[in-house]
Amino acid sequence: MAKSKAKKIREKLKREGKRNPEENRSPFAFADMRTRKTKTKKDLLDQKKQKNRSLSKDLSDGSFVFFGG
């Protein structure tokens, strides 16, 4: 593959003992951001199921309240 013009300039600066512009980059430029992901539809449904299960457990303890008038 051919070298880009920018890469040739960077290599020339490095040979001449000047600062390589690649060293100015933030360390976050090399971070792999693909590891972060939003919840899938299945994850959201499972989360709702868990919430519903805890609610039904609290209300189904066999007791009831009767208000007579």
Task: Give me some keywords for this one.
69 residues, 2 helices
Write up what this structure looks like.
It is a single chain. The protein is mainly α. It is 43% helix and 0% strand. It has helices at residues 5-15, 41-59. It starts with a helix and ends in a 10-residue tail after the last helix. The mean pLDDT is 77.
* Total strand segments: 0
Largest pleated sheet: none
Termini separation comes to 89 Å
User: What is the overall shape?
Assistant: rod-shaped
How large a portion of the residues is in β-strands, by DSSP E?
Answer: under 5%
**Main structural class:** mainly alpha
Helicity level: 40-55%
- Number of helical elements: 2
N-to-C order of helices and strands: HH
- Uncertain runs with pLDDT below 50, 5 residues or more? none
Please, what is the average pLDDT?
A: 77
- Tell me the radius of gyration: 30 Å
Task: Outline the fold blueprint.
Layout: H1 5-15, H2 41-59
Brief write-up:
The chain has 69 residues and is mainly α.
